[in-house]
UniProtKB/TrEMBL annotation:
<protein>
    <recommendedName>
        <fullName>Aspergillus nuclease S1</fullName>
        <ecNumber>3.1.30.1</ecNumber>
    </recommendedName>
</protein>
<keyword id="KW-0325">Glycoprotein</keyword>
<comment type="subunit">
    <text>Monomer.</text>
</comment>
<dbReference type="GO" id="GO:0004521">
    <property type="term" value="F:RNA endonuclease activity"/>
</dbReference>
<dbReference type="Pfam" id="PF02265">
    <property type="entry name" value="S1-P1_nuclease"/>
</dbReference>
<comment type="similarity">
    <text>Belongs to the nuclease type I family.</text>
</comment>
<dbReference type="InterPro" id="IPR003154">
    <property type="entry name" value="S1/P1nuclease"/>
</dbReference>
<keyword id="KW-0255">Endonuclease</keyword>
<dbReference type="GO" id="GO:0006308">
    <property type="term" value="P:DNA catabolic process"/>
</dbReference>
<keyword id="KW-1015">Disulfide bond</keyword>
<keyword id="KW-0540">Nuclease</keyword>
<dbReference type="GO" id="GO:0046872">
    <property type="term" value="F:metal ion binding"/>
</dbReference>
<keyword id="KW-0479">Metal-binding</keyword>
<dbReference type="GO" id="GO:0000014">
    <property type="term" value="F:single-stranded DNA endodeoxyribonuclease activity"/>
</dbReference>
<keyword id="KW-1133">Transmembrane helix</keyword>
<keyword id="KW-0378">Hydrolase</keyword>
<keyword id="KW-0472">Membrane</keyword>
Length: 297
């Protein structure tokens, strides 16, 4: 291997290191989002979802909600679809300005992917299933995953720090980066501290919050303006706003994040998991309701 070859290898390694970190809520976060969604599916949507699930799901959508992270190296083209970056220190998001990949190709970002996979799944019920050119099992798994990702505040973060990936911090005594803290560490610490290391218990607590404390907000979360099937733009706007207010705040490079940060940010994380779940269910309900309407017409 010549010097240029070696340089290339080093660069590839550095990029890989970043890429592995920018791909979404960790396994627990995606599982929670999809598990919450399952509880709000209509009978029609649940039947359609079950029909599309791969065998490996064992009938449970939550089991395959991390699949897009597992195949990210095999499906190289998909890695830009897990997030969207805004210009540095801009706490707002605009689809036209921000939704593109690093080569500038339009619509290649998390919100663009949510539109794309919603359209693919909707086409199932506008044409007959056998005529669809898309792999709708994959479309369902991508859509379920990306709606979760769009709710992780740092999946709509600044371009210059790759959504917090280049901000090295300590999470208590462990070395980490800010993006990883929001993907994994806050949830992991919450599991250990409050939920006896049991994800099902944490999910039940979030479900109770939805029915008890957030019940008046739930219809607003579900609502899409102009009767649209899916509306990822407000989710991304909320995320960058939360990233500025909570994720980036008091988390400069080299800082140690401990109880103050953990306890004040955990409610944000839990609410985002709830919103992601409710909105995934609402989207799937709308996609698969058109089935019934067309069949009746
Ligand atoms: Zn992801």
């Amino acid at each position: 291997m010549g010097v240029s070859g070696l340089l290339w290898a080093v660069r590839a390694l550095v990029i890989l290191q970043f890429v592995t970190g920018i791909l979404g809520w960790g396994k627990e976060g995606h599982y929670a989002t999809c598990k919450i969604a399952e509880g709000y599916l209509t009978a029609e949507a649940l039947a359609a979802v079950k029909e599309l699930l791969p065998e490996s799901a064992e009938g449970d959508l939550a089991n395959v909600c991390s699949w897009p992270d597992e195949i990210r190296f095999h499906y190289h083209w998909s890695s830009a679809l897990h997030y969207v970056d805004t210009p540095d220190f801009r706490c707002n998001y605009e689809y036209c300005r921000d939704c593109h990949d690093s080569s500038g190709r339009k619509d290649r970002c998390v919100t663009g992917a949510i539109y794309n996979y919603t359209n693919q799944l909707s086409s199932l019920y506008q044409n007959s299933k056998s005529e669809s050119n898309y792999n709708l099992t994959e479309a369902l798994m991508f859509l379920s995953h990306f709606i979760g990702d769009a709710h992780q505040p740092l999946h709509v973060g600044f371009l210059g720090d790759l959504g917090g990936n280049t901000i090295q911090v300590r999470w208590y005594r462990r070395k980490s980066n800010l993006h990883h803290v929001w993907d994994n560490m806050i949830i992991e610490s919450a599991l250990k501290t409050f939920y006896s290391s049991d994800l099902a218990t944490m999910i039940r607590a979030i479900q109770n919050n939805i029915t008890e404390n957030w019940s008046n907000q739930q219809p607003l979360w579900e609502h899409c303006a102009h009767n649209h099937t899916v509306c990822p733009n407000p989710y991304a706007s909320e995320s960058i706003s939360l990233a500025c207010k909570y994720a980036y705040k008091n988390a400069t490079p080299g800082s140690t994040l401990e109880d103050d940060y953990f306890l004040s940010r955990l409610p944000i994380v839990e609410k985002r998991l709830a919103q992601g779940g409710i909105r995934l269910a609402a989207t799937l309900n709308r996609i698969f309701a058109s089935h019934v309407k067309i069949a009746q017409a």
